[in-house]
Write a structure and sequence with these properties.
The structure is a homodimer. The first copy, chain A, is built from 16 helices and 16 strands. Chain A is an alpha/beta fold. In chain A, the strands form four sheets. A seven-stranded parallel β-sheet of chain A has the order 10-9-11-8-7-12-13.
């Protein structure tokens, strides 16, 4: 999405507009497909991936070789690389989605009015969803599965380094869709690597109803700035754990360790530890030792550094930082109020936890911390569609509108009102 | 919001940023106010409007005189003008909102996980809402009331022609807020008429969570294009009624007349009538006569004009038109399928109705018409927060995300997850 000088390409724009228009048409067919039919197609998609394993791995090998030649990082290559196990997981995921409850058509609420009108609020698909993503090829099949089950047409725009793998996966799945008698335009893949394609798609608000950018913060901000279409996004996860005065120290230690080291590179890992001043002297030395044993670098506030010697200083920038690494910033706070204020000021409204035995402080923290997921006595690592029992996850929203926190199938729907009357008119 | 050459004004930007920041802070206080306290404040606000009736009317008189001098239209002046009755209605509205159920804190869903985590999805305020509106001064107090009750801080940017009236109403209500010990920044009013103010506010996505533009389509599109903040909007209402073959003709006639003439200038009035070909010959002459008697101009398709002589021709543009006037376009269609396709193609996803005695066609229409409100055997004029029983309405959304159709207090909230554990960590 770097800026290019040539910003016009009528042929490209025409092609994309046609794709978006057809996706819109197909979305109307998808919206009224039966659950049974959708589940059959999902299972057939899973089988097709396994059947064409060889073609997928071959296309992927070429992507990886090209990326390696370009000198892309080891972590990048790792994310890009597919193997038999990963393709099997992709196929399994599609099978899992087929087993989830279909949100479409569910009655959210029904009531009648004094004039006899019967009003039902009913779940319906959003329509056409554009997903913009980076290097992981499994996102291609995951998004197709979740959008298909929730009755949405999808337009996928993957990263150019994975284009061979993505195109292979997409091609296999689209053939299944066609074979099953569903419009092929129910799932769409942008085959060009022309960076202007995204800019053009983001203007097509007549056809596309939602944009979900997945990737680095810069990509997401650019999409947000350019889009005429509503965007649901997830910038970052600056998650906190506050260890209260009354905390069970062993529990607190276990939770903090889990939230920091079990998988440090993910958005629900903890980045800042806040400790009540009354227990800092006893809690922090033990906690710090355990963290350091696990390879964690600690950056402390002034008071933390008085208690734990030999650690680095946390600057203002550290309180805003999403390390995604074995680094933890630590701050001693006066009380639960200061902890809440710190979190609301520096946090990213993602996931934050209190460890406490004090019921009142627990409830205060739950109410006043303004985040998507607020925990009492549990690890922040549970913020996840599967862990929540949503069955699947298309992403985590740190936005406030439409969906907040883990987004499953239900969050890929909207609603409509069905109103049944017997000739009522407005007086 | 016309473009100006001087686009920078650091002082203005600083002032607005300060306002937005303070609104954000105040929103945290609002979020935890008790329902009782909020209701008391709302009632006090209503009383204050009545108490200061004279000041409001005086300020309004100056606005109206200035607008008249500028040569603004009679309809515009009518919308701008306040009188004792209108101020009483504003006060009553605040009292009504105090009686509505408080959505904040309501548990949407609670479930437990196999590991013992208890997950609750709980309603919370959205945060800070920016409302951009045009000439009606009652919007000032209506929006303050609804945002306050739903725990949101509000920033109001009204039209420059009503600035004296709006400032008077706002000043009176803010004094009540302060007197009741609530941060004054819970409600905010942009006093400048500098057109750059809106552009600046639309960039402040760190502080402002939602923008609701109310007014003409041009204003709304401009806000959407410039905003970094999510926008919920309502472009227009191109509403349809389809009279099916099996319709009760008397009921159909009554509904069409009501939807067209009861109040033609509103968004839920019908603009296009679709009639099944099998009954067009008998239904249309009677219907047309009734409409013409009520002063309605009919613009028909070819077949309509063969049946009803002496009417104008409906062009392609007519099918897209929101007349907001005593004009109706009429088209004869083959069947319910053609009616649905016409509505999904030309409609604005607002409100559409079928009149039929055929249960199967009714259900098909309800499912396949892709609009916020779909009616069977009732007038489209019921799309309204009060008529739906939501108690109040801050607007109608023709968007698909977050809120669709009439928006009441519940639609001014989002949710958070409160998760209660006993030391759970992720394995």
């Amino acid at each position: 999405m770097r800026r290019t000088k040539k910003t016009k390409s009528p042929a490209l724009e025409r092609n994309l507009a046609r794709m978006a228009f057809r996706a819109r048409e197909a979305s109307r067919v998808l919206a009224s497909l039966s659950t049974k039919k959708k589940n059959e197609v999902l299972c057939a998609m899973g089988s097709a991936l396994l059947e064409h394993m060889g073609a997928i791995l071959e296309a992927n090998k070429k992507d990886v070789a090209r990326a390696a030649k370009k000198g892309l990082s080891k972590a990048f290559l790792e994310r890009l690389t597919l193997n038999e196990k990963r393709v099997c997981e992709m196929a399994e995921s599609l099978g899992e989605v087929s087993k989830l409850e279909d949100p479409v058509g569910a009655e959210i609420k029904t009531w009648s009015r004094p004039n006899g009108l019967l009003i039902s609020k009913v779940r319906v698909p959003i329509g056409v969803i554009l997903v913009i993503y980076e290097s992981r090829p499994n996102v291609t099949s995951d998004c197709i599965g979740l959008c298909f089950k929730s009755g949405n047409a999808v337009i996928l725009k993957g990263g150019s380094d994975a284009i061979g793998s993505n195109a292979a996966i997409f091609g296999i799945l689209q053939k299944v869709v066609e074979r099953e008698g569903i419009p092929a335009d129910a799932i769409n893949f942008v085959k060009t690597t022309d960076r202007r394609a995204v800019d053009m798609l983001l203007q097509m608000d007549q056809q596309i109803n939602l944009v979900m950018p997945r990737g680095g913060e810069a990509l997401i901000r650019e999409v947000r700035d350019k889009s005429k279409i509503p965007v649901i996004k997830h910038y970052k996860g600056v998650c906190h754990i506050f260890v209260d005065k009354s905390a069970d120290a062993a529990m607190a230690q276990k939770i903090v360790l889990n939230a920091k080291v079990q998988r440090p590179a993910v958005c629900n890992a903890v980045e800042t530890l806040l400790v009540h001043q009354d227990i800092a002297g006893s809690f922090l030395p033990v906690m710090a030792e355990a963290l350091q044993r696990a390879g964690v670098e600690i950056r402390g506030c002034r008071r933390t550094r008085q208690i734990v010697r030999g650690i680095g200083r946390a600057t203002e920038a550290d309180w805003y930082a999403e390390y995604l690494d074995l680094i933890l910033s630590v701050k001693v706070v006066k009380d639960v109020r200061e902890a809440i204020d710190h979190i609301n000021r520096y946090g990213s409204s993602h996931s934050d936890a209190i460890v406490t035995q004090d019921q009142q402080n627990a409830e205060l923290f739950l109410k006043d911390v303004d985040s998507a997921c607020v925990y009492v006595n549990a690890s922040t690592r549970f913020t996840d569609g599967y862990q929540f029992g949503l069955g699947a996850e298309i992403g985590i929203s740190t936005d406030r509108l439409h969906a907040r926190g883990p987004m499953g199938l239900e969050e890929l729907t909207t609603y409509k009102y069905e109103i049944r009357g017997t000739g009522q008119i407005r007086e």
